[in-house]
Design a protein that fits this description.
Layout (H helix, E strand, L loop, with lengths): L4 H13 L9 H9 L5 E3 L13 E5 L4 E6 L3 E2 L4 E8 L2 E11 L10 E8 L5 E10 L6 H14 L6 E4 L4 E3 L14 E10 L3 E8 L5 H7 L13 E5 L3 E6 L3 E2 L5 E3 L10 E4 L6 E4 L6 E9 L5 E6 L15 E5 L7 E5 L11 E8 L8 E7 L11 E6 L4
Parallel strand pairs: 3-6, 4-6, 14-19, 15-19
Antiparallel strand pairs: 1-23, 2-14, 3-13, 5-12, 6-11, 7-10, 7-12, 8-9, 8-11, 13-17, 16-25, 17-18, 19-24, 20-23, 20-25, 21-22, 21-24
Length: 395
């Protein structure tokens, strides 16, 4: 995943030690935001900065599934190997699959990357999918990242229940058995399911003729974690956060930004890596779901435009684009899931901003609540700040 670890941490630290920038929209920029469609890119020359006043917030874990991510190594560079092996207990599980065929020696070859689940209990195991997102492998990581996240937000529970005998193993996603993964293609999938027996989850890479079940029986090579590629792998006890602001946002106070998943104000989640027993750290909190509620009011009659931008574009050549997806409450546009940007693959750099929503003030200036469902977007650098900009709705 495109996480710019060192540079953005230094930049984030500088935010808190630097003076904030008093951003003011000019008339043309104000009108551009009002005229823009939801998810559109809007040019705000001279406006976007990392020194925006930060919205103070508190967060706490909320009940959620056991969480597993497979993203270390991101690039599987040997023809056949295991890239993750974790044990889970009966209950709900969220699993984020993010691995790439990186084989170059002795030559670039087609592979299969499959996630398997094995029943290690003593009685038949039932599996029911709560959320299921499958995508064909691709070198377009941004497309997979934002479309996969949007599909995960929209996914509904399946009525199907699979039965797995004790000691048997099946693919978590049966379509992965059919996909050909060419060199540099990403296998990307979000899965949330319920099981009633202890199980072992394994991600493996093998040849096109071998089934996941056969490969699981014969592969003994387990790749080590903490490689030079990937955000992390392991089993984590935190999968969901609730976030709310500790001081009501007032439009009269100007522009402000909520910044989560920065590794500073919002630390990375900690877990355990199953093959070594070592502590695991998920640099990026990818796959963690943030339920965000922001209280606001308008003392001056202005509305609030919610925008985001690729704040990491100046730090690193790998951060040249950003693509995300969110669920946002009703405002000028209906409540729903929006890909960011909507009509382009990515937003590149300042002065490009992406419009998420425009919120209208109440008639008497009462407090209102903005509700967001956010998850750090895979394939993009972090953080992706959520900026609330006062706008004159009747210029």
């Amino acid at each position: 995943m495109k996480l710019n670890r060192t540079t953005f941490l230094l930049a984030a630290l500088s935010i808190f030690g630097a003076k904030t920038h008093a951003q003011q929209l000019n008339k043309e920029q104000n009108q551009a935001l009002l005229n823009a469609s939801q998810g559109a890119i809007v040019r705000l020359d001279g406006f976007l900065t990392e020194k925006t006043a930060q919205i103070p917030f508190q967060k706490f874990p909320t009940p959620g599934p056991q969480y597993i991510i497979s993203d270390d190594p991101e690039y599987i560079r040997v023809p056949e190997a295991i890239a993750l092996k974790e044990s889970v207990v009966p209950g709900s599980v969220r699993f984020y699959l993010y691995n790439v065929n990186g084989v170059v020696e002795p030559q670039k070859i087609d592979r299969k990357i499959i996630a398997m689940i094995k029943n290690i209990g003593k009685t038949p195991m039932r599996i029911k999918m709560l959320k299921y997102v499958t995508q064909k492998p691709s070198t377009n990581y941004f497309k997979l990242g934002k479309e996969g996240l949007a599909s995960f937000f929209a996914a509904q529970p399946s009525e199907d229940v699979r039965i797995v005998k004790p000691g048997d193993a099946v693919p978590i996603d049966e379509k992965l058995e059919q996909y050909v993964v060419k060199y540099d293609e990403l296998v990307h999938g979000f899965y949330e399911f319920v099981i009633d027996q202890p199980a072992e989850i394994t991600v493996l890479q093998t040849d096109l003729k071998t089934s996941g079940k056969e490969a699981l029986k014969r592969i003994t090579n387990i790749l080590p974690p903490k490689t030079k590629s990937g955000a992390g792998r392991g089993l984590y006890g935190v999968s969901n956060y609730h976030v709310n602001n500790t001081a009501v946002i007032d439009t009269k106070n100007g522009t402000s930004a909520l910044v989560v998943a920065d590794g500073v104000n919002d630390p990375w989640i900690i877990g355990r890596e199953g093959t070594t027993g070592q502590q695991a750290k998920l640099a990026g909190n990818y796959g963690v779901m943030y339920d965000i509620e922001l209280k606001w009011k308008s003392s001056d009659g202005k509305g609030l435009a919610l925008i985001t931008w690729n704040s990491r574009s100046a730090d690193n050549k790998w951060c040249s684009g950003m693509a995300a997806a969110m669920k946002v409450s009703e405002g000028k546009f209906k409540e729903g899931i929006i890909q960011l940007p909507k009509d382009e693959l990515v937003t590149k750099a300042a002065p490009e901003a992406v419009l998420i929503q425009v919120f209208k003030p109440s008639g008497k200036g009462e407090e209102q609540t903005i509700k967001l469902t956010y998850s750090p977007p895979g394939a993009s650098c972090l953080p992706t700040p959520l900026i609330l900009v006062p706008v004159d709705l009747n210029p």
